[in-house]
Amino acid sequence: MKFLLTFALCLTVAGVVLATNTQTLTQVGGFQSASVTQTGTGNVSDIYQFTDNDGPQISTVIQNGTDNLADVDQFQTGGGSNTPANTAYLEQQGTGNIGYQYQNAPGFNSGQDVEAYQIGTDNLVRQAIYLGYTESAFSYQRGTQNTASQSVQGSHNHVENIQFGMYNIATQTINGTNNGYLSARIVIEQHGENNTGYQSYMSGGFSHKNHGDIWQVGDDNYGHQFNAGRDYYSEIWQHGIANYAGIQSTGDNNTANAHQRGDRNSVRYGGFTGIYQRGDWNSNVATQTGNGNSYNSEQSGLGNAASIAQVGDLNMSSEGNRWHTFTAPDPDVLVEMHERGIYQIGNGNAARIASLGNRHQAAIDQRGNGNAGSIYQDDPTLNNWGANFSKIRQEGDGNASSISATGRMNDAFNAQFGHNNSSTITQTGYGFFTEVYQSGNGNVSTVTQN
């Protein structure tokens, strides 16, 4: 049963709607439906729907004008198993639009859905689903200085944000299980300049593959992902100039990818790491195409693997300037913290860096068990002052390293401290300098320079 305002109160509210474009609607009972359309300045729509597990809740708000505000709250209690569940739709066109959509349902109520569209300037949308099952949140914004915030808790979550314009900010916070369930994903897609995308998703229990994507097309973009839990797959795609990507994961079976195309791109997290993984079965892949690229990675745990490919100019697989000269058998002399390109601590690690272009720098630092490292750099001969500088440091068990550099002013440094180590350095072309330090058991080293 649906309870609205009394008839006399409705008359009063109707007068207010005409004068100040304010609509307040409260519904209690089952099978609730609310629809509000407003045109003008200073529109306000406040909808509250409550039911004790009796039928779906549906709301539609459409506003055209300036300084619009829509606040929709849908709340369910009871034992759950209610399908279909809540649906909230919002459409705003104009300037200074603000939209709030909140839903709460028992854990086994399926089909929670919020959807918002904003076109204009200085828009804000905030969506939150606090509990439920097979939840979906979608927001679309076109204009300047748009901000979108999406927060979802529960299970089988599907979250997506699309923004077109400048100075956009998108934030997604997902807590629960089965985030980005099966083919669905957690997605931020931004087109324009000075965009910022941030994803945080954490899970546990019997999670399926949790999949998060950030897509950014334009200049001065920033994308960051944080995840902790089960079976995560994180990916950032950036196409433009001065892009920045960072991925941090803690948990099991993690995979992270960062793809950048353009100039002055950077894959970093904090001061040292672009992709940071701590946990089990981790893997990260980064590809960069363009000029002024830099990359850092840190892994700690079991079964880690890292790979990077750079094509372009001014590439760095490390942080900082050209490294200091190797002068002493000190474990930290060869690769210092601020110079690491790929840094691995743990078991079964493998790292590979391949660079094509000019002014390369690459570093691999491995401390643990079963490590293997390989750096390949090429110039011929896009020459930009010189280019390739390579360093590998390994401390631990069963390590093997290989450095191959082709073209220009190549420097190669390799230091191994530990067991069953093997090192191969091959350089072809111009100003070679190679230094190898081995301390430990069963070390073998081969150096070839032409």
Summarize the structure.
This protein is mainly β. The protein has a domain at 265-450.
Main beta sheet: 35 strands, parallel
Residue-averaged pLDDT = 76
Please identify the structural class as seen in this structure. Answer: mainly beta
Beta-strand percentage range: over 45%
Strand count: 35
Q: How far is the first residue's CA from the last residue's CA?
A: 87 Å
Which shape, going by the Cα principal axes? elongated
Question: Which percent bin holds the helix content?
Answer: under 10%
- Low-pLDDT parts are 1-19, 269-273, 318-340
How many helical stretches?
1
Radius of gyration (CA) equals: 27 Å
Could you list some keywords that capture this structure?
35-stranded parallel β-sheet, mainly beta, disordered N terminus, single chain, 35 strands, 64% strand, 450 residues
Question: How would you characterize the overall build of this protein?
Answer:
The chain has one helix spanning 7-20, and strands at 22-28, 32-41, 44-51, 57-66, 69-76, 87-95, 98-104, 113-121, 124-129, 133-144, 147-166, 169-179, 186-193, 196-203, 210-217, 222-229, 232-241, 244-251, 255-263, 266-267, 275-280, 283-291, 294-295, 297-302, 305-313, 342-347, 350-357, 362-369, 372-378, 389-397, 400-406, 411-419, 422-428, 433-441, 444-449. The model is unreliable at 1-19, 269-273 and 318-340 (pLDDT under 50). It is 3% helix and 64% strand. It has 450 residues and is mainly beta. It has a domain at 265-450. The protein is elongated.
